[in-house]
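Recap from last week: sequence in, structure out.
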Amino acid sequence: MREAVRHYRQAGGGTIVTVSSWVAQRGSTNPVTIAYAASKAATMAATKTIARAYAKDKVLAYIIAPGVVRTRLSENFAATQGGEQAVTASLAMGEWVPPGDIAALVAFLATGTCRHLSGATLDVNGATYVR
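Predicted structure tokens:
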């Protein structure tokens, strides 16, 4: 991110999109993933700092905080929580976030179309974690 900021400041602006996680805000239910949760919180804090510190330089920074996305990591996590059916039953929409939803949001944010959203954390979890 440091190199991206340096480049964007010289170029007259740019966009950074980071992928954090809902565990950055609510913690993890599995203590084995404490380092994962901490790293996602650090990513979130770094991105917010960039958004605030470099807004006048036209550097935009957005955070996506997904819930349970259909990935290998989430499948492994589900195995520690009673299986996929148990995890799915705990989700408001009753389904995992498709990776394509995250990709579509990254693509939109990268356009810079919504500049004043810079610094925001966008929760993508099917209404399971609403703040």
